Every structure is written in C-alpha cells, then in structure tokens.
C-alpha cells in the first residue's frame, strides 16, 4: 500500500520536477510547511532529468533576468542549506558573434544586462580564443562574456530542493496521480487523486509539458506544446580542460559545454517539430524520442567546424527528448485569471532549470504575500488568448518559438506563422491603403503604411529601419494635420446591470459615477495599491458602461472585473470587442474633417473633451468620444462592424483637402510616448502604484465608498516615493532606444528604460523609464542631475522630465 495522503493541506503542488520542488522549497523557507507535493512517477521524471544544466543570465526581459538572479542565489547557497550537492560551478558563458548583425546585438545586450546588475564583458577575437582555446577563430568577430554564469546538475538540484523542503515539513509523495482539481465559487478547493482527495487552499500546476492538459481539466488555459529537442554528448576527449566557459553560438544555433571529460553540444535549431500534440502519454516518465540524425546532422557538422576537436570525438549519446515551448516564447507564471488560488508555473521553453529556483521563489511570494518584488506581466496567464490553446495553432506557432530562439532578436520583429486569425472590419481597407501588418493577440494590425512602389515588408535593423521615414510622415500628419488609426483590435467590455456603477466605482480610482455620455480615464488597483488595469470607462446609459482596454490585456481586465462582482450584485460583463470597428481620427484638423460629415455640433463648447455621444456620420451612426492617446485634438469612433468600411471610405473621400493619412501603430506609439501616455505591461503593471507612475491625477481620494487599494495608496502618499516613471529624450538625434537600456544619473545607475520610440516632433529618441532614488526624495530630484542612457555601450546624454515634454499643459487635445 502506498503512502496515505493527508485529508487537507494548505498548498498542493502537482509535479515533481525542478519547478515543483523549488516552489515547495521556497514556501517552506517562508514558514509554509503544510504543503504536499504530488508526483505521479518519480521526481525529475518529466523533463527535468534530461536538462542540459546551463545557467545563463541573458534573458529577454527585465523580469526574467531578475528571476535568474534569484536562481543564482539559490544555486550558490542550496548545498550549504541541505547538505546535498547540486553540481553548481561558476564557469561563465561566452555568446560568440560570427556576423556583424550578431555583434551589434551583443553590444546592445551588454548594456541591457548591466541595467540588471549583471556582469558582462565584450571580448575581441583574441580575448575570446584565450578564454576558450578549443574554438576555431575563423569568422569569429568577438563575444559577450558573462563571468557569473554557471552550470549544475538538474537531477541533483531537484533532489537537494526536495530535501530542503521535506526537512522543513513538506510532504513529497511519488506514484500518485492527480485526476482532478475541485473548485467552488471560482476558487480551488482541493484535488482528487488515485489515492484519495485532499482539500487545499492553493493548487500549483507545475506539471511541465503536461501543463496544458492538466490546466484544461480545471478550465485554465495554459498554451504550450512539446517539441523534439536535441543534444549530443561525445566520448571522453583526452586532455580536455575542465570548466571552460559555455559557448553559445547563435549563428550556428548551438551551445557547447564540457561535461565529465567530454563535450555536450546542444541545439536550438530551426526546423524542429511537435511531439504528441493531441495528448502526451499520461503515465510515462523519462521519455526519450527516436534519434534523428538526418535532421540534426547538418547542425552538428557546423559545430565541428567551429570546434574542430569534435571531429575526432566519438559520440556517446545522441539524445532527443521533448521540451515544452509557448506561442510567445515566454513561460507562464502566476495565478489563473478566472480561478482563484490556482497557480501555474509551466512552459519554460527549455530554460526551466535555470529559471526554476527563481520561479519557485516568485511563486512563493505570490502565494504567501500576494505579490512579488519581481514584476512579470510578460508571464501573466491572463495574456493568453483563446485561440492559443488550439492544437493546430500551437503546432505552427510554437515551432517558430524554437526556430527564433537563437536567431538575432531584432527590434520590432514580427511572427510569420499562424497569421490572419483575427481581422478588423477595416482590414481590407487598410490593406488597400498600403498597410504593413504586425500581429498582436492574434489581431492583424497596420503597423505602418508603405507608399505606392515601396515593398511591404520589414527590413530589420538596430539602426533606423526601412519604415522609419514612412512612420515619421504618419506621426507628423497627426501632429500637423489629421490621421486615422484602425484601433479595432482594442478590447471592449460591456458592463451592465443595476449594480454596474457600484462595481466599477469600487474597482476604479477615478470617479466613474458620471453623467451619461462621459468618458473617464482610470486605473484599477490591487490591495497593495499596484496597478492591475489602465482603462477608460464610458457611461453610455444609467446602468450600462463600456470599458476600453488593450488588445493584450482585455482578458485580464475582464477576469479582474468579474472577480470583483459580489454574489449579491446584479452586474454582467461581456467582451464585445469583435462587434465594433474602431477608428481614432486625430490631429489639429480632425474637427475640420469630421464636421461636414455629421449634423452633430463638434465645436469645443458643444462637444468638450471627455464627452461621448452617438452621432450620425456619413450614411450611418457611430459613437464618437472626444479623447486622445496621441496628444492631439480628436475623436475615437466606435462603429458597428458592418458599417466600418463605409465610414473609412467616407472619411477617406473627404480627407484629401485636410491632409488626411492612414496611420499605423508604430506612429501611434511614438506619438503617445512623446506625450508621456502610459501603456500597461510596458510602462506600468501590478508592481507599480499611481503615485510612482505619475498617475495620481486620476485618483479621487475622497469619492464615496473609496476604492480597492485606497488604504495602501494613502500610506504610500503619506510616506512619499523613492521611485518614479520619468520621460526622457536623447540629446543625440541619431541614437535609438528600444527598451531596458540602463539609465544613469550623475554617473550612477538609477534605472531602466521601460518603452521607447523615436520622437519625431521632439527630435530624438524618447522614452519612459523608471528611476529609483537612494531614499524618499522630493519630486524635483528626479528631474535634476546629469542623465545619460547607455545604448550599445555608449552613454548618451538625455533630458529628463516628469511632465510631458510635448504639450506639457495638454492644451492641444482640448482645443
């Protein structure tokens, strides 16, 4: 008879790999020991057992680099805590460049990494070969060296974490399968297993590549797909040096590390393929896939050229095993949006070992404290779109995630697979106008417009891209004349019912109990005062509101609002995004364009800023809202889908005398950053409060009934802040910014760029960036001092401002 399970536990963790055991360990370190970890086979038997063991800090976002920093702290201290070796050794990593484009990427990467406090060193060819003499220097242009990177044993680390957890009281039970997750009233209540039922307050899905199927059983969408993943281990090589730096050669899609007198060569090669996309075998462990030398051989031969010692080395192991990858190449970490206390840590895109200890630590933060100092909106489960769990979509898109893993990561790079899923009612019209489309949340969106005779494609670059001047013209059209942006992809939530105003008032910091026909800009906070949503709320009737959200955040905002409707309240929320087209008609001549096309009075007196009304336009009717996201006079037009093409044609026919241009999202982004308008998930998220973010003007402190997070926010206001979101423009008009570049004040690292675009009106790269002071300081401190931003190794002087550098008094939108 197997081990008897407890009747209840505070936390049940499902999955006994590096992620599950690290979560158990971190919970136990925080004093939460009423924890049960269930593994249906044996620990590490999923994908952990075959992990290559690399620990590399070069991750793609600020938050994921912070996760690896936490992992490194645990790797360094774990053996001394548990007495069980992890095999951790600090060897360093060298990312080598064999093309000018790769070398430029490494220069940018070096600066970005320093912003996280990660030690890096750009090496020339001789320095590279000195550190790794087995490399063939032919074609090598240099490398980026990470001296504090390392490697370890995935199996030993997992066992060490398990020992550390059980020593503190956690129960780990192998050979037990969880068959179901029980829920009630939108919250988990426990699990059912092959050995009985356990009541639980929290459930953690750490089931690795089974995460999609296990999540679906509880109604939680976890898009991931297992792909064939390969590495080769040679026979012992005589006189091989020990603990050489790990080599990562992106241009050759491979990494190499020494291992017990041999070499391991692993691949992130293009052209991999899905495995078991219909259903992963449920009760198998230690899965190996068939060898595929026909596929792998050409990539291995390239690495033989790069490291000639491989040519005479026999092959001891040609390993192929499944690894789970996600549609956007980012893992899933956090609470399910529509099921309270159900947490997911899965889909690690073959970086689970190096991310595992840190991810378990972050998950423990979220469970114990309700928040973490590592803010990861990019890993939030609420970003998931329904179509992303479709098997055929996953097969196409997730392969591309692996294909791109070791490619140059270009600014503004677009995905190529599984496109044309969600089309705006204006798609055909924008396509005819010359749109070059990007994709967000499945939506095809016009990012820029190519003039007649110009090829409609991206030419990627770290310098000014091929669309730079065309987007600049679109930018100037809105600043100087009028432009129209197809914003149909934006989320639209219809909130109705007797208690709709009560619900919205409770979650909103601003006053939404306004007259019918009024739009309100507001944030929704968590209990700690962090920003959970950044939306507009339009009152269209006494008990009816329309909430406008971003395309990638609408599911999150929908779940947040539903979560805060009390059982006794009469209020419904429906996602009506696809029922309406939406056009932003913006610019100083927007009134001149629109007025002859409607009988409504669009004068400033009759239709003031913040008003929202149904008006006639052309041969139809639209909801026109006087608002802006670009800092100019303008209206957002909500249009019945079937009328979208007519309204576009009507505006286009009347627009030539006014200088009307179709405008894409690249220009919209440059316009909004010049004006200092925030974007949730880029500039602000749940770890930032409105005071830090410069959004306290939206907060109505004394409104009746208050709002969620008010008590925490009042404490922050009373104490003051040591961190603020600041606007910057570079002095050098040629330099470009993208995101995460480090910010220095008087030569001291104080922050990072959150989002950036070229400010065509301001005449330089413009950014919103977070700046941290050594203590709580007066507001003026953040604008004082000599600021520089590091761009690809160069520190470029920048001007800082807490007020918008463009139209600081916001006179233009209200003209």
TrEMBL record:
Gene3D superfamilies per record? Aminomethyltransferase beta-barrel domains (2.40.30.110), D-Amino Acid Oxidase, subunit A, domain 2 (3.30.9.10), FAD/NAD(P)-binding domain (3.50.50.60), Probable tRNA modification gtpase trme, domain 1 (3.30.1360.120)
- Per UniProt, residues of the Aminomethyltransferase C-terminal domain are 723-807
GCVT N-terminal domain span: 426-703
Coiled-coil features, chain-numbered ranges: none
Spell out the Pfam families in the cross-references: DAO, FAO_M, GCV_T, GCV_T_C
Q: Which family does it belong to?
A: Belongs to the GcvT family.
Q: Which residues form the FAD dependent oxidoreductase domain?
A: 11-366
- Its protein name is FAD-dependent oxidoreductase
Question: Native species of this protein?
Answer: Nocardioides glacieisoli
List, for all copies, the residue spans of the domain called FAD dependent oxidoreductase central.
Answer: 369-424
């Amino acid at each position: 008879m197997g081990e008897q399970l407890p009747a209840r536990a505070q936390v049940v963790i499902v999955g006994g790999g590096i992620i599950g055991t690290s979560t158990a360990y971190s919970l136990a370190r925080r004093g939460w020991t009423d924890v049960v970890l269930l593994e249906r086979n044996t620990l590490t038997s999923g994908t952990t057992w075959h992990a290559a063991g690399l620990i590399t800090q070069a991750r793609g976002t600020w938050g994921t680099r912070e996760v690896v920093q936490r992992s490194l702290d645990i790797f360094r201290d774990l053996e001394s805590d548990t007495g069980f070796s992890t095999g951790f050794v600090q060897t360093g990593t060298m990312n080598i460049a064999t093309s000018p484009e790769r070398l430029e990427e490494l220069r940018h990467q070096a600066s970005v990494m320093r912003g996280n406090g990660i030690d890096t060193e750009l090496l020339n060819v001789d320095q590279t070969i000195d550190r790794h003499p087995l490399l063939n220097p032919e074609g090598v242009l240099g490398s980026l060296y990470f001296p504090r990177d390392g490697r370890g044993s995935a199996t030993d680390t997992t066992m060490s974490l398990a020992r550390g957890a059980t020593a503190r009281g956690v129960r780990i039970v192998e050979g037990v399968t969880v068959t179901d997750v029980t829920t009630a009233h939108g919250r988990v209540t426990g699990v059912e297993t092959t050995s009985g039922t356990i009541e639980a307050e929290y459930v953690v899905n750490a089931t690795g590549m089974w995460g999609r199927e296990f999540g679906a059983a509880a109604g939680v969408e976890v898009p991931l797909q297992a792909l064939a993943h390969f590495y080769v281990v040679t026979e012992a090589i005589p006189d091989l040096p020990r603990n050489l730096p790990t080599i990562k050669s992106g241009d050759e899609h491979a990494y190499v590390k020494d291992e017990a007198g041999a070499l391991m060569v692993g691949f992130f090669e293009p052209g991999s393929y899905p495995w078991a996309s219909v259903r992963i075998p449920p009760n198998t462990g230690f899965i190996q896939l068939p060898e595929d030398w026909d596929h792998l051989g050409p990539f291995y031969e390239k690495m033989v050229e790069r490291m000639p010692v491989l040519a005479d080395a026999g092959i001891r192991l040609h390993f192929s095993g499944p690894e789970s990858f996600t549609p956007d190449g980012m893992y899933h970490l956090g609470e399910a949006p529509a099921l309270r206390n159900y947490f997911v840590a899965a889909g690690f895109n073959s970086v689970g070992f190096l991310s595992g200890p840190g991810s378990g630590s972050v998950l423990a933060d979220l469970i114990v404290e309700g928040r973490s100092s590592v803010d990861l909106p990019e890993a939030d489960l609420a970003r998931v779109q329904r179509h992303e769990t479709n098997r055929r979509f996953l097969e196409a898109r997730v392969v591309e995630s692996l294909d791109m893993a070791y490619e140059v990561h270009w600014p503004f790079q677009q995905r190529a697979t599984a496109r044309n899923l969600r089309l705006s009612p204006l798609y055909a019209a924008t396509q005819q106008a010359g749109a070059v489309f990007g994709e967000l949340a499945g939506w095809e969106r016009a990012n820029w417009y190519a003039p007649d005779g110009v090829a409609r494609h991206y030419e990627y670059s770290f310098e000014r891209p091929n669309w730079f001047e065309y987007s600049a013209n679109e930018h100037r059209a809105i600043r100087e004349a009028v432009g129209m942006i197809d914003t149909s992809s934006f989320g639209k939530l219809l909130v109705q019912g007797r208690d709709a105003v009560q619900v919205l008032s409770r979650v909103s910091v601003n006053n939404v109990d306004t007259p019918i026909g009024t739009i309100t800009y507001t944030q929704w906070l968590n209990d700690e005062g962090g920003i959970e949503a950044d939306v507009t709320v339009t009152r269209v009737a006494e008990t009816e509101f329309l909430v406008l959200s971003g395309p990638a955040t609408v599911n999150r905002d929908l779940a947040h609002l539903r979560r805060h409707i009390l059982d006794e309240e009469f209020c419904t929320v429906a996602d009506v995004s696809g029922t309406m087209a939406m056009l932003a008609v913006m610019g100083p001549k927007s009134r001149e364009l629109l007025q002859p096309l409607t009988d409504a009075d669009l004068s400033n007196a009759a239709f003031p800023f913040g008003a929202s009304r149904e008006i006639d336009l052309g041969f139809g009717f639209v909801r026109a809202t006087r608002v802006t996201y670009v800092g100019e006079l303008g209206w957002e037009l909500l249009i019945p889908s079937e009328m979208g093409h007519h309204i576009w044609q009507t505006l286009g026919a009347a627009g030539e005398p006014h200088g009307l241009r179709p405008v894409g999202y690249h220009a919209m982004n440059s316009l909004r950053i010049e004006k200092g308008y925030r974007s949730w998930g880029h500039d602000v998220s749940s770890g930032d409060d409105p005071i830090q973010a410069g959004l306290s003007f939206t907060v109505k402190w004394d409104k009746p009934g208050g709002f969620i997070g008010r008590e925490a926010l009042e404490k922050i206001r009373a104490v003051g802040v040591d961190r603020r979101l600041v606007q910057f423009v570079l002095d050098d008009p040629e330099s470009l910014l993208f995101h995460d570049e480090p910010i220095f004040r008087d030569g001291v690292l104080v922050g990072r760029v959150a989002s950036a675009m070229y400010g065509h009106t301001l005449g330089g790269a413009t950014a919103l960036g977070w700046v941290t002071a050594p203590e709580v300081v007066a507001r003026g401190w953040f604008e004082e001092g000599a600021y520089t931003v590091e761009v690809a190794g160069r520190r470029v002087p920048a001007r800082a401002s807490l007020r918008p550098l463009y139209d600081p008094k916001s006179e233009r939108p209200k003209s």
